[in-house]
Amino acid sequence: MEFLKFEKVKDGKYLKNYELTYRNKAGREKKYEIVSRRELAGIEDVGGKPSGVSIVATHEDKMLLLHEFRMGINRMVYNLCAGMLEPDESLEACIARELYEETGLKLRKINKILPPSFAAVAISDTTTYIAFVEAEGNLEDHTSENEQIEARFYSREEIRQLLETESFSSRAQMAAYFFSLGLKG
User: Which among 41, 49, 137, 179 has most CB atoms closer than 10 A?
Assistant: First the structure.
């Protein structure tokens, strides 16, 4: 694949739309659309900077899952606590802030932070860290009026049951599956 052209086609409040033009392996031009959470100066910026974190939180051998309404799919889905890095915010501060904002919980310990990974490779350059943490405190609703989030800790057996019947984001589904098998981060 040979990159030919990069153009911003829409500038939304949270997402920027870009059109990329390539020459495919057959020698024909192909246009491809992507979205980014960041302003991209050119093709060299695509996938260049992590934008947020997904948090796999546990407490007393239970895993935190959010049951939340997501407008992009117009339904409730099980998801991980997650959020965007603020300008000049450390990753550790972002984890603590997002955990508190979405659940009321406090960060007790960070066990592992994986390097950034792509969140939706078919349509976006968005990369996020995945953090495995221990949380403490009481669940409280600190969400904005634009969020519908029900946070709860689940046992391995409860998660096994949810995995058979409920809708998940892909990262939450994978984390929940491995947690249900006894693995922890």
Answer: 179
Cα gap 13→10, rounded to integer Å: 10
pLDDT digits (tens, 9 = 90+) for 104-127: 999 999 999 999 999 888 899 999
176 contacts 169 by C-beta, under 8 angstroms: no
Q: Using an 8 Å Cβ cutoff, are 31 and 20 in contact?
A: yes
Average pLDDT for 71-79: 94
pLDDT reading at 8 higher than 70: yes
Query: What's the rounded Cα separation, in Å, for the pair 50 and 129?
Result: 7
Tell me if 93 sits within 8 A of 169, measured CB to CB.
no
pTM for this model (two decimals): 0.90
Burial label for 98, CB within 10 Å (0-12, 13-18, 19+), is buried
